[in-house]
Design a protein that fits this description.
Blueprint (H helix, E strand, L loop, with lengths): L17 H32 L1 E6 L4 E6 L4 E6 L4 E6 L5 E6 L4 E6 L4 E7 L4 E6 L5 E6 L4 E6 L5 E6 L4 E6 L5 E6 L4 E6 L4 E7 L4 E6 L5 E6 L4 E6 L4 E7 L15 E3 L5 E5 L5 E6 L4 E7 L4 E6 L5 E6 L4 E6 L4 E7 L4 E7 L1
Length: 348
């Protein structure tokens, strides 16, 4: 019996040229595959290029991680590094060192600290002017906001605040600074040109950090000992709303909000809840908590990836960092981050 022949269709006749079919099909799908591959490679390259810096207070180092939380290197810096800010061109990182009373300057390309700017005793949090030329630092021991010229390393001026100043935020126009006073329970509104406090806004107990809405109309303030966030109307300079947090089975005294940030579209706020070991995702419009996500012990500092798909949370008492998928609201992984990690800083 003659074996049956594979046919393309039911009619007898000349068979198609398989080689030509393959060439024709390839000419159609190969450019599409190549384009798709390039897009994928671009996305992977972008993610791999992302750098996550974490200051470790007790190791006196800034640890460098890739986007997935893998440790790349450790940079020796000044004593007790805390807050960090990138220079305007992104080439350098300024890190506040609380025990050596300095701002350490890290050259990212060299991977080391290349300079030290002397500051007053016990610096806490820092903000840079929009042009990156001036550092505004809360000085705990002196109860002042101090301004330093980064190039000359000279003190420009100091403005008296309430006791234990902490959070510092400078508006995008560079005209106004907001400073929290943990002792006075107020937010100072400072006119930087006039170099004076022009308004004190009563917040909750022990106000800590800030987040400014993209349109500049709302200032969110975390209140560590009030289990709350105060939402300030920047036009009237008054509190317009207060958001309280609660977790099932947990005492209010263990819910201690500190870290806070808003997404670029202004629709979502993320708040670290300190000793509650969770972070809260808040719907800005409704002022309601969408969900909470378990992190490590004493969830503290917060940073978002450039595409805002990953939230990095430093956990001060478990010495680690939790990576959270913001879309699913689930922790991806937790990685060691040095002893008492303070601030995460994500840079391209």
């Amino acid at each position: 019996m003659t074996p049956s022949r594979l046919r393309f269709g039911s009619r007898p006749g000349p068979q198609p040229d398989l080689h030509r079919l393959v060439r024709t099909s390839a000419s159609q799908w190969l450019p599409r595959l190549t384009a798709a591959s390039l897009l994928l490679l671009g996305a992977l390259g972008s993610a791999s290029a992302q750098s996550v810096y974490v200051s470790s207070e007790k190791d006196h180092k800034v640890n460098l991680f890739d986007a997935g939380g893998k440790l790349q290197s450790s940079i020796e810096v000044c004593q007790r590094p805390r807050d960090m800010k990138a220079s305007a061109d992104g080439r350098r990182i300024h890190v506040v060192c609380g025990d050596s009373n300095q701002i350490g300057v890290i050259d990212r390309a060299a991977g080391k600290m290349v300079d030290r700017i002397p500051v007053a005793d016990s610096p806490e949090i820092m903000a840079l002017s929009p042009d990156g030329k001036t550092a505004y630092v809360s000085i705990e021991d002196e109860s002042v906001l101090a301004a330093y010229d980064i190039a000359s390393q000279k003190t420009l001026f100091k403005i008296k605040t309430g006791g234990e100043p902490e959070g510092v935020l400078v508006t995008p126009d560079g005209k106004t600074a907001y400073v929290t006073s943990e002792d006075a329970n107020v937010v100072h509104v400072i006119d930087l040109a006039a170099k004076k406090v022009i308004k004190d806004i009563k917040a909750g107990q022990r106000p800590r950090r800030f987040a400014l809405s993209p349109d500049g109309k709302e200032l969110w303030v975390s209140n560590e000992l009030s289990t709350s966030v105060s939402i300030i109307d920047t036009a009237s300079r008054s509190v317009k709303a207060t958001l309280k947090f609660a977790l099932d089975g947990m005492r209010a005294s263990d819910i201690t909000p500190v870290g806070i940030l808003l997404t670029r579209d202004g629709r979502t706020a993320w708040v670290s809840l300190g000793r509650a070991n969770h972070v809260a995702e808040v719907d800005v419009a409704s002022r309601k908590v969408r969900r909470t996500v378990l992190a490590g012990k004493r969830a503290w500092g917060l940073a978002l990836s450039p595409d805002e798909s990953t939230l990095y949370v430093t956990n001060g008492l478990s010495d680690d960092m939790t990576l959270i998928d913001t879309r699913s609201g689930k922790a991806i992984r937790t990685v060691p981050a040095g002893r008492v990690p303070h601030t995460p800083l994500v840079l391209p």
